[in-house]
Records
---
Amino acid sequence: MDTLLALLVGVLTAAGVYLLLQRSMLRMLFGVILLSNAVNLVVLVAGRTLRAAPPIVPEGLSAPEATMANPLPQALVLTAIVIGFGLVAFALVLLYRTYATFGTLDVDVLSEESEDGDAVGF
């Protein structure tokens, strides 16, 4: 299971880096999304993927009876997913405004327009 997840992390990282190297800003955003998912998987795998008991202490006891799962990686990944959704929504709005203003998301065209001084005024 860990080997499969490690391969998946490698594929996601490679695809994310490939998309980050593209000229379109939308593809760059997709690359960031893939890289964040790869990092989330790394954190989840680092916390071990065992089938242990949930971290719930039964009533009347002060400690769990059996080996319990570590909830910290899951909490970190859940927090990262929520923050990632906010970041993606904000970036999509910025990309939409950029496309509405300039008519393109190509980085080279946008940098040429900013050198000409046309990039003033969102």
---
Amino acid sequence: MTSMTPESVSTPPEVRKLGIVAWLKKNLFSDWFNSLLTVVVVSILAYAGYGMLNWALTIAQWTVVPRNIGLFMTGLYPAEQYWRIWVLLGIVCTLAGLSWGVLARNLPTLFSRNVLIGFAVVCAGTVLFPPTRPSSPKVLLMVAIVAATAWGGRLLGRKQPGIGKWISLLWFISYLVAIWLVGGGLGLPNVSTNDWGGLVLTLLMAVSGIALCFPLGVILALGRRSSLPVVKLLSIAYIELIRGVPLISILFMGQVMIPLFLPEGARPDRVLRAIIGLTIFSAAYLAENVRAGLQAVPRGQQEAAASLGLNTPLTLGLIVLPQALKTAIPAIVGQFISLFQDTTLLSIVGLAELLGISKSILANPNYLGRYAEVYLFIGILYWFFCYAMSLGSRKIEEQLNTGH
């Protein structure tokens, strides 16, 4: 007697897609109370939106933004060296497109409807928005680079499945290239860090802080769970001490105290001191996020690894940390976003990052009272990068299938 085994033992339930009218009836007008709540909320949002739009189109004086777009982007960076910033942006767009294509190599459609809408919004905004209109050809070229390299990265990812580690290496190399392009040397004219500013300085500080605080936070999290008393005590002392001190205090100590303990020629640059302060502060919080992920890994995983003969480093590197970091992705990205926003405090210690350069522009008598326009503009920039990090984390979660 033989038995037949079906090829597929289970299939996912069919997802029923609702039309717009059915979706509105189900989610917004399901009963009289939801209908009333929907009408009230929509009315308030429409009134606020109309007022905001009316102010933006008829009252706001946006000339402050296009006249100072160079200061917003690069601070006091020499105008004749702007080409180095555009080259750096081209490198970032190339690597971003390649990474996107490789990550999406198994998706049926690379340029979905939402992606095309996003491209169209960016291109239209660049052309229509007065501050970015002079740079529209260059920005459109960057969008084309992202799309082209994404398509090429997808083909490359399908032919070479292990290409991802090489792209990670290219990202690391691009950071060193960015420092060289912005700062100069090795054939390029030097640009003092006193002239670094605006969005370039903000991104440089945020990327440096994120890249440095992540490994330090992982080490501290492992140290706090260590069975070695001295390592555990030192890790706990560091985390609890740093978390009890405001970031601005650490930044001031980095700018004022560090030079006092070092000889004149050995004093680190003030940008480097600020990066150290951001790293020290964020690593303590990141360690707690990683520790939460470590606690979510069942003890049986370590016991199973030990039964296979794996030592502690291999168990941590191959079994425990991949699961812990995957679980802690939302908290870790939240800490990265917080670090990016914390860069606004650097203006207090004299660094002309995006907020600091905005304050200097508002101090100009020609632009007195233009607070709303300036702060709304830099607010949109901050939202764009924070949302990009959030969107990237969701895509990584989908790739790692953290829902199962």
